[in-house]
Amino acid sequence: MTYRPMxxxxxxxxxxxxxxxxxxxxxxxxxxxxxxxxxxxxxxxLKSLRLxxxxxxxxxxxxxxxxxxxxxxxxxxxxxxxxxxRRWCLRIKRALKEAHLPGTKTLSNFDWxxxxxFNPAPLMQLATDIGWxxxxxxxxxxxPSGAGKTHISIGLARASIELGKRAKFFSATSxxxxxxxxxxxxxxxxxxKKLDRYDLLIVDDLGYVKKSExxxxxxxxxxxxxxxxxxxxxxxxxxxxxxxxxxxDDMMTVAAVDRLVHHALIxxxxxxxxxxxxxxxxxxSAEGAxxxxxxxxxx
Length: 299
Known about the structure:
Elements: H1 12-30, H2 38-48, H3 52-68, H4 72-99, H5 121-128, H6 131-134, E1 138-142, H7 149-162, E2 167-171, H8 172-184, H9 188-195, E3 200-204, H10 213-226, E4 231-236, H11 250-262, E5 264-268, H12 274-294
Parallel strand pairs: 1-4, 1-5, 2-3, 3-4
């Protein structure tokens, strides 16, 4: 038997490539790259995890921790608290933006002297305790035009958002129009479900809804859908006894009222219009200033 020596069957170009790779590997082994410092690695990891606030503040906080001799756990806790606080502020900012609250009204800047006989304690309880939203309870505010119903409803909504809940403000007429459009497009159930994302739905000035089968039927569907599921805050000029001017028939009126009041705080404000009173005070002030200017100087 004859043995032949083995020959390399690889092409010259392939042999050249392998040779270059071997040379590169050898050079890398001879001159290894310096390892990244823990500081560089930490910054890289924080960046990849999108912990931007921690990335911006960890070096300053580390310096403080070393000076004050914090434990590792204390340093880590302080670093995490910075990120948690930032994310909470961003969450509140987003929730306020989506709520579409008209103006920056709060319960703290409401003029309670305008309604001296009113006890605000139950309202303030709602503003500080989100239990009513978690139980899907309602708040119904009645009173004449200009009494402050809208201001109070905005203040309650803002307080709820600042406690971590989601709210959405609608004028009653605008909401009904949107619901009607959804019904015409056969997507009303989908829209009602979409509104479920909000813990609190504010329906302002219910009395301006026209008494028609088309409008009041979608309004009733909203009330029935949110019953014991999500909270409603409704303001209205008319008491319940006059709601037959809102809904198409007595049966629908009774059914709507029954669902709303079952789990609800009912607030009745008796006061003259705040806007009318303010206008009268401005007029009196202007008249007094004019009389003072017109009076002759006394020597």
